[in-house]
């Protein structure tokens, strides 16, 4: 499996069987360049413009935007778990989905716009995933300290921070990724992509900031 960050909370997952999954595509109002991408299925955590821009994705036949188990093939499935976009039971921003992708003997989780610490039922479904894509910017989602607490709770093997301030969205009232990574100490690498198999998890970094492939 190859995981590439396309900016914000948008990731491309390329599987050995040729399947391509895209998470939370954004529109141009985010400030990031919108580069069309091909995918077989699109995971949409919630219906906000920076997460549901389906018109920027080409070739897809499935949109996963509801809670439950979604079977994409005999060996690929997605468990979408309902959660809240804020710390007030959704009163401010509604709900979001937390998705666990199971493929190639790996479990990869994308936490959408999570706005609170997971409850025990949610945590039980997310605990010990191989890769955790976690929002860290705050204001609209959990912030750096809460994101660190989520990682401590779920104990993923690899952490991929997302949804933070960059040069593209510099006016947004969210924190830069460094506010989160400094809480992890010296365990963070900067990579163009994450290439993983179920047999090489011991060789993977504890956490990685993926450079956004916005010109690809």
Explained architecture:
It is a single chain. With 216 residues, the chain is mainly beta. Helix content is 10%, strand content 33%. The protein is built from three helices and 16 strands. The protein has helices at 120-126, 144-154, 178-181, and strands at 2-5, 11-14, 20-23, 37-38, 41-43, 57-58, 62-64, 68-73, 76-84, 95-103, 106-110, 131-135, 158-162, 188-191, 194-195, 207-210. The relative contact order is 0.17.
Key descriptive features of the protein:
single chain, 216 residues, mainly beta, 6-stranded mixed sheet, 3 helices, globular
Task: Describe the structure in brief.
The protein has 216 residues and is mainly beta. 10% of the residues lie in helices and 33% in strands.
Number of helices: 3
Estimate the mean pLDDT confidence: 95
The assigned structural class equals mainly beta
- Please give the radius of gyration in angstroms: 16 Å
């Amino acid at each position: 499996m190859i995981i590439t960050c396309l900016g914000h909370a948008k990731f491309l997952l390329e599987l050995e069987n040729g399947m391509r999954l895209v998470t939370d595509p954004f529109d141009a109002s985010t400030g990031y360049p919108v580069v069309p991408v091909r995918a077989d299925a699109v995971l949409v955590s919630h219906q906000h413009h920076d997460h549901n821009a389906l018109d920027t994705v080409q070739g897809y036949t499935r949109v996963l935007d509801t809670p439950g188990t979604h079977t994409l093939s005999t060996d690929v499935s997605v468990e979408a778990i309902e959660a809240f976009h804020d710390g007030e039971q959704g009163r401010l921003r509604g709900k979001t989905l937390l998705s666990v992708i199971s493929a190639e003997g790996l479990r990869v989780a994308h936490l959408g716009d999570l706005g609170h610490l997971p409850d025990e039922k949610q945590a039980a479904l997310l605990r010990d995933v191989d890769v955790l894509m976690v929002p860290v910017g705050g204001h609209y989602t959990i912030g750096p300290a809460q994101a660190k607490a989520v990682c401590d709770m779920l104990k993923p093997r690899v952490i991929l921070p997302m949804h933070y301030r960059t040069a593209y969205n510099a006016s947004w009232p969210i924190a830069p990724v460094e506010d989160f990574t400094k809480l992890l100490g010296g365990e963070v690498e900067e990579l163009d992509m994450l290439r993983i198999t179920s047999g090489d998890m011991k060789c993977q970094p504890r956490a990685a900031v993926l450079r956004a492939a916005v010109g690809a």
